[in-house]
Design brief:
single chain; 411 residues; alpha/beta; Lyase, Ornithine Decarboxylase, Chain A, domain 1; TIM Barrel; 2 domains; 8-stranded parallel β-barrel; binds ligand LLP
């Protein structure tokens, strides 16, 4: 079990101070292999090329990106830094797509310079691109109009209540802009939202169907059909996503689509979370223990600056305490961070081992949207990232120093 690996390597891990992000190489490799096998199987079933573009935003550590690359997967980037990391990790320009959201001309010029295929999600952005780079290939993001999928309303990215995509009623205007600048829409894009598991596969499929209908009725000669990310992982004790079921259901609709839409050459997927999430754990420590008006609080050094998901989405992460005294007594407590905000709560009303000061705290499933959403709020440094590979620890990102944090300050 992942926790046992942490326990067995604890002395070495603590050399990097707490909090620290720890990744298990074997778990990461396994999830990459699962994505590769999803790609290979679906490719055979539908007799079309399938590409998996790991969404760099989930975790942009170069050592993770390199493992993604050696596993035969591609990437998507959403910012100049992500693009630079992907390129430095050896991805070629045609293995990267740039999923744009309200970017400026400077960023557009960078994408063009690197010859990366952009995907736009508004007509005004297509207009700007067209005025800069006539006669080029682009992709466009479609909002299929129905509510997408996601673990929280903040991560549902299709339907009436989101800022994303171009809706069907605006496609006529899109085409006028495309014609004016002689652009070539080679692909369409869909991302319904983040984190669906088996109970939402049908919802995902419904969104895909609606999207394919819009593509078929409105566009000719699309070569790339992007179906986005969202592949979930269990955070509590849910069943893991069953890729056989997903493939069966996708196969049916994609085969049907292939028949009525001959130009399509490739299907793309953009999983982010699925790849690094379960390989990552955060190791921190207990700094305070108290009871306030009958409520227990365990104060740790894992604040919302280190893992924002619980305070931002009310997300559940498993938390365990490694108790030096091996005590068996349990308490019900709120486990909090060290940031001065009431919302800085890692876990609420958890039944957990009664801790002592300096006990170790472990947060699971922190490999995706952990470091990548971390911040320097209240001036705290971002921790180190380390990877356990073949029983050895490798440092894969150095902990930020005070000098680093003060580097751009003008006193
Ligand atoms: N493609 C696009 C266009 C996206 O916007 C995203 C994520 C992905 C792919 C990858 O989605 P995934 O497979 O990881 O679900 N911070 C949130 C998740 C927000 C994801 C936003 N978009 C969280 O921690 O749950």
């Amino acid at each position: 079990m992942n926790i046992d690996i942490i326990k067995n390597n604890l002395d070495e891990i603590l050399k990097y101070k707490t909090p620290v992000y720890v990744y298990l190489y074997d778990v990461l490799k396994d999830r990459c292999a699962k994505m590769k096998s999803f790609k290979d199987t679906l490719e055979k079933e539908i007799d079309k090329k399938v590409s998996i573009h790991y969404s760099t935003k989930a975790n942009n550590n170069p050592q993770i990106i390199k493992i993604v690359k050696e596993s035969g997967l591609k990437v998507d980037a959403m910012s100049p830094l992500e693009l630079d990391i992907d390129l430095k990790c050896g991805f070629k320009n045609d293995e990267i797509i740039y999923v744009c959201n309200n970017i400026d001309k400077e960023e557009m010029k960078l994408i063009r310079e690197k010859n990366i295929l952009p995907c736009f999600d508004s007509i005004s952005q297509v207009k700007i691109w067209g005025s800069l780079f006539k006669n080029t290939d682009i992709m466009v993001r479609i909002n299929p109009g129905i509510k997408g999928v996601g673990h929280n309303k903040k991560v549902i990215t299709s339907g009436k209540k989101t800022k994303f995509g171009i809706s069907e009623e605006n496609i006529k205007e899109l085409k006028e802009v495309v014609e004016k600048y002689q652009l070539n829409i080679v692909g369409t894009h869909l991302h319904l939202g983040s984190l669906f598991l088996n109970d939402s596969i049908d919802k995902y499929i419904k969104g895909v169907k609606e999207y394919l209908k819009i593509v078929k009725n409105n566009f000719e000669n699309i070569k790339i059909i992007d179906l986005g990310g969202g592949f979930g992982v269990p955070y509590q004790d849910e069943e893991p996503l069953d890729f056989n079921i997903l493939i069966e259901k996708l196969k049916k609709i994609l085969m049907k689509f292939n028949k009525g839409y001959e130009s399509v050459e490739e299907y793309k997927f953009e999983p982010g979370r699925f790849i690094p999430c379960e390989s990552g754990l955060i190791v921190g420590k207990v700094n305070s223990i108290k009871s306030v008006m009958g409520k227990n609080y365990i104060g740790t050094d894992i604040g919302m600056n280190i893992l924002v998901r619980p305070s931002m989405y009310d997300a559940y992460h498993k938390v365990s305490i490694i108790n030096k005294k091996e005590g068996k007594e349990k308490i019900i407590a709120n486990i909090t961070g060290n940031i001065c905000e009431s919302g800085d709560v890692l876990a609420r009303d958890r039944t957990i081992q009664k801790p002592e000061i300096d006990d170790i705290v472990i947060v699971e499933n922190s490999g995706a949207y952990g470091f990548s959403m971390s911040s320097n709020y209240t001036g705290r440094p971002r921790p180190a990232e380390i990877m356990i590979k073949n029983g050895k620890i490798e440092e894969i990102r150095v902990r930020e120093s005070l000098e680093y944090l003060e580097k751009n300050l003008l006193f």
